[in-house]
Amino acid sequence: MLIALPGPVSGAHFNPVTILEAAVYVPWQVARAVVGAILADAMFGEPPVKWSTHDRSAGNLLLGEVVATAGLVHAGQERERRSA
What we know:
By secondary structure, the protein is mainly alpha-helical. The protein is 68% helix and 0% strand. It has helices spanning 7-10, 16-43, 59-83.
């Protein structure tokens, strides 16, 4: 049922190989992000693993994330447009 419902709306289909690739890709990316954060802390002489004590829930931070994401999406679209 879950596979059949979105098909008529998006025209998409579900490929089991793609799902298996994602099952490997996502944990691999998360592991790489964790290792990168640990290495960055080590490079700046910080403890490699620590809990953050900063409150990161302000509206200005959300706005910054939205603007940065929009910039990345725009850059990707421009690259595709220029290569077509």
